[in-house]
Amino acid sequence: MASHRVEPHEYAKNLRRSIINSMIKLFILHRAQPNPVYGGALTAALRQLGYSISSGTLYPLLHSLEQTKLLRSYSTTVRGRERRYYEITSLGRQCYSEARQALMTLIQEMFSDQIKTKS
Hints:
The chain is α+β, with helices and mostly antiparallel strands. It has one domain: Arc Repressor Mutant, subunit A, CATH 1.10.10.10. It is about 65% helix and about 15% strand. The protein has 5 helices and 3 strands. The chain has a 3-stranded antiparallel β-sheet. Strand 2 and strand 3 form a beta hairpin. It is globular. The model has no long low-confidence stretch (mean pLDDT about 90).
C-alpha cells in the first residue's frame, strides 16, 4: 500500500493555515469576552491587525465555535437589517483562559532568546 507523501512546501502552507485559523478562533473568543461580537466588526478588527479574512473563512470559524458551545448567537435588527451577534459561554471563557495560558507558555519558550536579549 503506497503512502501519500505531502511535499514540504504543502505541509508548511497547511501548518500556517491551521495556526492562523486557531489564532483567529482565540481572537474571536478574546473579542467576545467583554461584549458580544458580530462578523463585520471582527473582520474590521482583523484587518486593522493586518489579516484580511473573507466571510467564507470567518463564518465557518464562528459556526464551529458555536457548535462546540464556546459561543452562542442571537439575531437582532440594526438599522433595518438583521445582524447575528456571538457571545462567549462559560465553557468558552474556560477554554479561552486555558488556551491563552498554554499559548503564553509556548511563546515564552519559543522566544526566550529574544526576550533575554531585550532585558
